[in-house]
Specification:
Layout lengths: L4 E5 L3 H12 L3 E6 L14 E3 L5 H17 L8 E2 L2 E6 L3 H16 L4 E4 L14 E7 L2 E3 L2 H14 L3 E4 L3 E4 L4 E4 L3 E4 L2 E4 L5 H7 L7 E11 L6 E4 L4 E6 L2 E6 L17 H15 L4 E12 L6 E6 L2 E5 L5 H16 L31
Bound molecules: flavin-adenine dinucleotide.
């Protein structure tokens, strides 16, 4: 049975999608956002999307998300730019080469349109391939501007009569579920969905429910140059790039250490900018000029699967994306809305209750080849 009133906390890609999907099922939704929509990590994402996953549940989620992105293409200013995703390992990097070969085999076993190719087969892709040992080419891939997705979902939520409470920071109350504003006024709801990104752990911990989620810092930049090639992930130097209206958007700079939620640096490091521009020159053969650079936080879990499901009675969580939260948002929002409305669709491997929430674990990157 559908709940009557649901509070969603966080107007990022995940919270907005969930709010919209709930509203289309006849639920009265109030969406709380402490800042403005997209002000969290969704507004900082690179917008890369693909279905090149090796695990069956990841494949199913990615598949559905890509289907939704394509359905939304052309609505408002949102565009899904079909672009192949080339992931490569350099000659001599034997561990990366083996991991890539194994990953492609598993992707193919899951019926993904992913080919294992050598450097010569990449000749038509307008990238430099002299150093490539082996590569995977994923055809079901593309990119979208995360801000355009946010704007579209805000408009869709508005049309679906979602109540917006932007500029409102809340804390969580459980048993019965509700949200508190300024820790003073508590509003009760049938269900509360916590989609506050990496800040979800703090919200739930303060409510007495610790969750196994740690933030880690990542960086990206946009550079002016001529580039119209594929999305590229170089597993040897762990960098990526994709075409951008100004030239390229490139990233790496993952710090595999827990960041401090209160004191993290949102500006890009000098070493990152310099290394990334070199990586773009190396791969595209262009002379990129920095337009802007930034840093953000991603959420890690002990097993690199996300935390999506009920944490305690009628309090749901959706976080812990290991850098895949934007590309999964259309599917996760839909699945979470179905679950909240009584359909049992979420996999046990995403269940937040699989962890105590207090265990210690190391942060592992999400954009790797062996998943
Ligand atoms: C540089 C960079 C590049 C990335 N590239 C990609 C990519 O190419 N593809 C991909 O899939 N993912 C990418 N990601 C990851 C992606 O950005 C995240 O996984 C995704 O945006 C998470 O969405 P979300 O809605 O869960 O969280 P967020 O977008 O962070 O939204 C959470 C919202 O909750 C709000 N909030 C927090 N606390 C409260 C509170 N107490 N009360 C009210 N509101 C609150 C915040 O203000 C925020 O707006 C990238 C991330 C970064 C930083």
């Amino acid at each position: 049975m559908n709940p009557e009133r649901v509070a969603v906390v966080g107007a990022g890609a995940v919270g907005l999608t969930t709010a919209f999907e709930l509203a289309t099922r006849g639920v009265r939704v109030t969406l709380f956002e402490r800042d403005e929509p997209g002000a969290g990590m969704s507004g900082r994402a690179a917008g890369i999307c693909y279905d090149a996953y090796a695990e069956d549940i990841d494949v199913a989620v990615a598949d559905r998300a890509m289907e939704r992105f394509r359905e939304l293409d052309g609505e408002g200013d949102f565009r899904f730019h079909e672009t192949p995703y080339v992931f490569l390992a350099r000659e001599g990097d034997d561990p990366a080469i083996s991991a890539l070969e194994e990953a492609v085999e598993q992707m193919q076993r899951h019926d993904r349109n992913v080919a294992l190719v050598d450097a010569e087969a990449l000749d038509s892709y307008s990238i430099q391939t002299d150093d490539v040992g082996v590569a995977g080419v994923c055809s079901n891939a593309g990119w979208a501007d995360p801000k355009a997705y946010i704007d579209l979902l805000v408009a869709k939520c508005e049309r679906a009569s979602v109540e917006f409470r932007f500029g409102t920071e809340v804390s969580i109350r459980a048993d019965p579920p509700g949200v508190a504003i300024d820790d003073v006024v508590t509003e009760r709801y049938d269900v509360v969905v916590v989609a506050a990104g990496v800040f979800s752990s703090r919200l739930l911990e303060n409510a007495g429910y610790p969750v196994a989620l740690k933030p880690y810092r990542v960086q990206a930049l946009v550079a002016d140059c001529e580039y119209s090639g594929p999305i590229v992930y170089d597993a040897t130097d762990e960098s990526y790039l994709r075409p951008h209206p100004r030239g390229v958007l490139a990233g790496d700079g993952v710090e595999l250490a827990e960041a401090d939620l209160n004191e993290w640096d949102s500006t890009a490091d000098e070493w990152f900018v310099s290394d990334s521009l070199d990586a773009v020159t190396h791969r595209t053969g262009t002379a990129p000029k920095l337009a802007r650079a930034w840093a953000g936080l991603c959420g890690a879990t002990p097993d690199r699967n996300p935390l999506v499901g009920e944490v305690t009675s009628n309090i749901y969580l959706a976080a812990g994306w290991h850098g895949h939260g934007f590309m999964w948002a259309p599917a996760i929002g839909e699945m979470l809305a179905q679950q909240v409305c009584g359909e049992n669709v979420l996999p046990v491997s995403f269940d937040p209750a699989r962890f105590e929430g207090t265990e210690s674990f190391d942060v592992l990157d999400g954009m790797v080849l062996d998943e």
